[in-house]
Amino acid sequence: MGIKKKGVAQDFKSYPYSPKTVSSILPEKLVIERLHWLNYSIFPFNRMFTGLAVGLAKWWQKRGVDVPLLSSDFLIVAKDG
Description:
Strand 1 and strand 2 form a beta hairpin. The strands form 2 sheets. A two-stranded antiparallel ribbon has the order 1-2. Strands 3-4 form a two-stranded antiparallel ribbon. It is α+β, with helices and mostly antiparallel strands and about 80 residues long. It has 3 helices and 4 strands; from the N terminus they run E-E-H-E-H-H-E. Helix content is about 30%, strand content about 35%.
């Protein structure tokens, strides 16, 4: 990972899976403990007012609000169950 322009960039592949799909392909011994939605993208504000969109996302995250419709990524925390 590295800094590129105004954000953090990755040079590894990512795949478009839904949380339901990820759950179905996990080994049976792993249980999803938590799901966090990330990278809020409030179109068209994310293109026109980048700072405002990022600020709003941080405000929501501080309050523990997950907004799946506005998120482009998610993080799954799994444990051995």
